[in-house]
Specification:
Low-confidence stretches: none
Number of strands: 0
Shape: elongated
Helix content: 55-70%
Structural class: mainly alpha
Order of helices and strands: HHHHHHH
Distance between the termini: 25 Å
Length: 163
């Protein structure tokens, strides 16, 4: 039975996740810059990767703005609402998705194949953290409504609803 009285933390584990991924991204880019990962450098397609990186960064910023500013997720969490509309209808965690897009864009701009393992690390790390924390909290608070939402909307990769 859902526990609608329970208050959810506004930030969840978000600051820890974002800071960890940011530090990994900066560290990887520094290793690349100082030549420690030269074997992974691509000689062809740098312009395309750079452009793709810029596009991902812009998409990430847009997704963050839509979820935080336009949908006012902080206020909705404080009110105890489960938000399933707007960007939350295409991805359950658009703020985390936004940061993955931004960090992946930064890594793509370096045109180093070795660095492209990090987005998969970010995804796996997020998946584990979500299952152990926020998803448990939301399931406890919203019960079947949240379970159904999970069936219809991906955790991190934006996609249109399955129904």
């Amino acid at each position: 039975m859902p526990n609608n009285k329970k208050k959810l933390p506004v930030f969840g584990f978000g600051p820890i996740y974002v800071l960890t991924c940011l530090l990994l991204t900066i560290g990887a880019l520094a290793l690349d810059y100082y030549g420690y990962l030269d074997m992974g450098k691509l000689t062809n397609g740098k312009t395309i990767l750079f452009a793709l990186g810029v596009i991902l960064i812009i998409m990430g910023i847009f997704l963050w703005i839509k979820s935080v500013i336009f949908q006012k997720i902080g206020e909705e969490i404080k009110k105890g609402h489960l938000v399933t509309t707007g960007v939350y209808s295409i991805v359950r965690n658009p703020i985390y998705s936004a940061f993955i897009l931004i960090f992946t864009g930064m890594l793509l701009m370096s045109a180093n194949l070795y660095l492209l393992i990090l987005p998969f690390v970010f995804w796996a790390y997020l998946t584990v953290l979500m299952k152990l924390t926020e998803e448990k909290w939301l399931k406890e608070k919203f019960g079947d409504e949240y379970v159904e939402y999970c069936r219809e909307v991906n955790r991190v990769i934006p996609w249109f609803r399955k129904r």
